[in-house]
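User: Please run a holo structure prediction.
Assistant: Happy to. Please share the sequence and the ligand.
User: Here you go; the ligand is phenylalanine.
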Amino acid sequence: MDSKKGQWGSNFGFLMAAVGSAVGLGNIWGFPYKMGISGGFAFLLIYLVLAVLVGFVIMLGELVIGRKTGKGVLAAYQDLSANYAWIGWMGTICPFLIMSFYTVLGGYAIKYMVANLGDFFHASWGVAGMDSGAFFGNFLVQPVQGIIYTFIFLLITYLIVRGGVQKGIEAFSVIAMPALFVLLLIAILRSLTLPGAMEGLAFMFKPNFEVFNGTGWITVLGRAGGQMFFSLSLGMGCMITYGSYLQKKENIEKNAIMIPFLDTLVAVMAGMAVMPAVFAFGMEPGGGPGLLFVTLQGVFAAMGGIGPIFGFLFYLFIVLAAISSAISLLEVATATFIDKAIAKGKEPNRHMATLWCSVGIFALAIIVAADGLGSNGLPMPLGFIWLDFFDLFSEGIMMPLGALAMSLIIGWKLGPDWMEDEITASGHKWSGKTFAMVCFRYIAPLGMVFILIGQLNGFFGWGLF
Ligand code: PHE
């Protein structure tokens, strides 16, 4: 561990930062809807099995690689072998691609926080009684506004990461994550006490085995796998980077269990906040930006005088969830530059590294913001809107590929002793060794191939299953 790079002050601080990375837009707009349309409780069971057999071990592998090498994703893979550098490069490019749209969506959430505040004061800059679909549509065709809000979101992210591992990321996470949890509890309480709320719970939880008929199970499995993957921030070196700041005395195996557990808990809870309210007001459930910025805003409008307060608190919740994920993405990129400086024997300059990475991200984000989810007539690469185009390369291709390669390398090249050496460095036993190695060698790679195909099938509409 290089002292120039920083370290987590406590295991709690690390855990909050890692859970902060995992809990994000994916939990709120992806999980509840996908669970609802994919078999309800049956989907949840499949998701949990995948989280244990694939998510957990890939998390464990990334944390071990990070702590053992003490480096960010590129330098870590280069250290392992020059042949693996390409995985490190994918991990370096990924955060730029994901941030290109994550910052835009985070900016939208800030805009909605402001708009609900405006409504509270009956100001002209609120939603002011406009239909929520029209309000969003109107916002999307104003690229300059979109770019300004994106900038604000990125600026906050930049300032936190610039502060360093302990004084920036950890300090923010130990306050933001508990606050996020409280906000979520408030939202659940409001949502579940609305008349008609039970229908929303039924949508999410009622087991529906019909979706498994024919090849339906492949679709469900692919959907659950893709969701799990993005939601746990795996496959692009986030957890390698965060693991590299973990002290040797901390128990890696326990952390690798806690992060997926808490991430799934928040995903289920987010569903309990969102779906009952959607159904109580007779709206159609959905996923993606439409759910966050049209359906839910419609819910807050329908709540009457109290609506803007809940609206403000809910969008604050989303902003906190998005920032804690965004800082982990920016940190992956920043760490690469810091590693480079150290490798050259220079004093690393975190401020400059963070700044240049942010500038690069902003350049891409401007395109996504100006595109306004395809509203402004920008040319469409490969027929995609820009958000989906950047998402395809990161979430669709590089992340599953990175994780596939990693589990094969750990399973077949580095082997159990290499892993055990690091896991037991804290003085704890590696209790799940045999299980984990079977997962690394066989189950996780198989699962990853499947997820990769499922993702591409979804993006390109191959209609395979
Ligand atoms: N896990 C985050 C979410 O669910 C997204 C993310 C992916 C963050 C990859 C970091 C790295 O929204």
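Residues 11-460 form a domain with the Amino acid/polyamine transporter I fold (CATH 1.20.1740).
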